[in-house]
From TrEMBL:
GO biological-process terms attached to the record: proteolysis
Superkingdom of origin organism: Bacteria
Native organism: Cetobacterium somerae ATCC BAA-474
InterPro entries per UniProt: Peptidase_M20C
Source species taxonomy: Bacteria, Fusobacteriati, Fusobacteriota, Fusobacteriia, Fusobacteriales
Example of a GO MF term: metallodipeptidase activity
A cellular-component GO term for this protein: cytosol
Designated name of the protein: Peptidase M20 dimerisation domain-containing protein
């Protein structure tokens, strides 16, 4: 999995203002040409995120 920093995560910014000591991450699928008529979602990256989140939730439920 590739980690990259991008300009996004408006919600993370709002939450971090209220809880400045909280570590926050934002993950999601690849979306291109956002907020335009040509916006599209990369289905394969959506599947990767979905599978990752399923594993993460299952692991958290073990604790």
């Amino acid at each position: 999995m590739k980690v990259e920093v991008i300009h996004a995560g408006l919600e993370c910014g709002a939450i971090s203002q209220k809880y400045p000591n909280m570590d926050i991450i934002s993950i999601g699928p690849n979306i291109k040409e956002v907020h335009t008529p040509n916006e599209y979602l990369d289905i394969s990256s959506t599947e990767k995120i979905y599978n990752y989140l399923k594993k993460l939730i299952n692991n958290l439920l073990k604790y």
